[in-house]
Structures are given as structure tokens and as C-alpha cells.
Write a structure and sequence with these properties.
- The complex is a heterodimer of chains A (113) and B (113).
- Chain A has 113 residues and is mainly β.
- Chain A has strands at residues 4-7, 10-14, 19-25, 31-37, 43-49, 55-58, 61-65, 71-76, 85-92, 102-103, 107-112.
- In chain A, the strands form two sheets. In chain A, strands 2, 4, 5, 9, 10 and 11 form a six-stranded mixed sheet that branches.
- In chain A, 37% of the residues are buried.
- By secondary structure, chain B is mostly beta strands.
- Helices cover 0% and strands 50% of the residues of chain B.
- Chain B has no helices and eleven strands.
- Chain B has strands at residues 5-7, 10-13, 19-24, 31-37, 44-50, 53-57, 64-68, 74-78, 87-94, 103-104, 108-112.
- In chain B, the strands form two sheets. In chain B, strands 2, 4, 5, 6, 9, 10 and 11 form a seven-stranded mixed sheet that branches. In chain B, strands 1-3-8-7 form a four-stranded antiparallel sheet, with no helix packed on it.
- The N and C termini of chain B lie far apart (32 Å).
- The chains are: A mainly beta (113), B mainly beta (113).
- The interface between A and B is medium-sized, with 24 and 32 residues.
Chain lengths: 113, 113
């Protein structure tokens, strides 16, 4: 069974709209990583969250890790075509900063100009 | 640009053959992890090397093996290739310890025919 669920699986938004992607873990998260991937290419690091309640922002992207450390959300404000791609969350469940990550299946984001 | 480089970028092999993929880690990073990403799926952890020793392994058969060299670059070897081995192979490098980011290379696209 999939222990790291991402929702939605795909998303189509009009340019300028806000959107949220969720990542839910069946186990406590000791580290949660968000990456963006263009089709068939490597993963681009976005943010890493470790502490419950932590929130980080970079440009128009904000990621949060809930207090119970079992869910994270990625929020994009005023989306642009450059935000299009596949967003992946990766979980570190080891508690030791192992970076042996389990990934969700990804959320495919399309932004219509 | 992450500083993690992988070679080759694309490769076509015949079932039953052997393949070696290479990864140069970012300067200062002593830990390299390998992932397999099938089409439409999130990356799956294969194994990790820390200071030239295997430091964890995912659910992959022994025909997937690896090496890490004194300069922390790494190789992934796959013997007796199967059609299902066709995937994007990604390596990620990080500095050992907690609180550090993990950066990915652009990947090697392996096609087994």
C-alpha cells in the first residue's frame, strides 16, 4: 500500500490562480522534501521541512509541515506557466537524516496562460 | 544547477546485458543515493553509499549493485537486464548528517529492449 499519498494527482489551473498540493504520510515524518520535476528530467529541490509547524517560502511557493508531522502542503500563489511540472514529496521516516527517501507518485501541474 | 552530474544521459541496452551508470556528487557531499523512476511513478530508493560503504538498501534484487569511490563519485551496476529495468535512474548527493538538503542529478534514461 502507498504510505505517502499526494493529492490531487493532477491539476490544471488558469495563470494567476492559487493552488495547493497535499502530501499525507501514514507515519511520522522526520523530514519532508518537496521537489519539482520537468518531464523526464532530474528533480529540482524546492524545500525541506523537519519541525512540526514549520513553514518555509521561496518566491511564490510556500510549504508547511503540520504539527503532528504527518501531512505537508505546498501552496503556489499567483501561478505562472513556469510553475508547470510534476511536484513530488519525499519522506524521511528514519529520524536520522538518512535521506533514504520514499516518494509520492507526484502531482502533475499544468498552468494555462 | 546542482553540481550533481550523471552519465550517460541516455542508454539503450538489450535484455540480459549489463550496464554501468555514473554519478559525480556535489563538492563536499559524501553521501550518494540512487533511485529508479518508472514512467508515471515517483522515484524508488535503490541504495545509498556513505564514505564508500553501502548505507542502506531498498527493495531491489542483488543484480543491482554499486560502488562509491574516494572522491565520493558513485556507480550503479545492473546485471542481467530485464525489460522492467527501463526507467530514469537518478542519483542524489548530500552531506552526511541532519538538516542538509539533497540534490539530484539530471538522470540517466535507460531503455532495455
Amino acid at each position: 500500500s502507498q504510505e505517502l499519498e499526494q493529492s490531487p494527482q493532477s491539476l490544471i489551473v488558469q495563470e494567476g490562480k492559487n493552488l495547493t498540493i497535499n502530501c499525507t504520510s501514514s507515519k511520522t515524518l522526520y523530514g519532508l522534501y518537496w521537489y519539482k520535476q520537468k518531464y523526464g528530467e532530474g528533480l529540482i529541490f524546492l524545500m525541506m521541512l523537519q519541525k512540526g509547524g514549520e513553514e518555509k517560502s521561496h518566491e511564490k511557493i510556500t510549504a508547511k509541515l503540520d504539527e503532528k508531522k504527518q501531512q505537508s502542503s505546498l501552496h503556489i500563489t499567483a501561478s505562472q506557466p513556469s510553475h508547470a511540472g510534476i511536484y513530488l514529496c519525499g519522506a524521511d521516516w528514519s529520524g536520522a537524516g538518512s535521506y533514504q527517501l520514499t516518494f509520492g507518485k507526484g502531482t502533475k501541474l499544468s498552468v494555462i496562460p | 544547477e546542482t553540481g550533481v552530474t550523471q552519465s550517460p544521459t541516455h542508454l539503450i541496452k538489450t535484455r540480459g546485458q549489463q550496464v554501468t551508470l555514473r554519478c559525480s556528487s556535489q563538492s563536499g557531499h559524501n553521501t550518494v543515493s540512487w533511485y529508479q523512476q518508472a514512467l508515471g511513478q515517483g522515484p524508488q530508493f535503490i541504495f545509498q553509499y556513505y564514505r564508500e560503504e553501502e548505507n542502506g538498501r531498498g527493495n531491489f534484487p542483488p543484480r543491482f549493485s554499486g560502488l562509491q569511490f574516494p572522491n565520493y563519485s558513485s556507480e550503479l551496476n545492473v546485471n542481467a537486464l530485464e525489460l522492467d529495468d527501463s526507467a530514469l535512474y537518478l542519483c542524489a548527493s548530500t552531506q552526511g548528517g541532519t538538516g542538509f538538503e539533497a540534490f539530484f542529478g539530471q538522470g540517466t534514461r535507460l531503455t532495455v529492449v
